[in-house]
Amino acid sequence: MNDDVTTFHYDRMVENALRGVLRDALRVVETQGGLPGEHHFYITFDTTRSGVVMPDRLRAQHPQDMTIVLQNQFWDLQVFEEALEVTLSFNRKRERLRVPFAAVTAFADPHASFGLQFQTEMTMDGDGEDMDEDVPADWDMLVGGGEGNEDHGADTRPGADSGEDGAKVIALDAFRKKQ
């Protein structure tokens, strides 16, 4: 009998698979040269994570997290295995960003009523328990949910169920080990 104990980290496996959904969606946009129809993406990321490359002035304005929108005005999207790079306009000045997929905390395509929320290693406390995340105040609105709009979207915060309206939201808390 083998004395080695193998631990399956299913939560990490699921997290990596779901980040693959984001990567695949971005690759479609990269290949087609833009988003089809009325689709648009909101991508929220942790600006403090290793590998995030952005101008210092933007980092000063967004010291914790930042949400970018890929819709009409973005250029030279490049999707790599571990990161995305894109040029966006900020105050009429084009700036290049590099965002590792490990830094992404949320992804939404409001046109498809689809959203994903990710955990990052930095959202775990010393005991490995989830800490409350700083979800952007307008996150519910990104997929059409929130106060007064219950019939148009879903609450996408961790642990939220998909509503009867058919919005597809994946919250990984359901897969996390409870202690």
From TrEMBL:
One Pfam entry name: SspB
Signal peptide region: none
Region annotation (Disordered) ranges: 140-166
Descriptive protein name: Stringent starvation protein B
Organism: Roseospira visakhapatnamensis
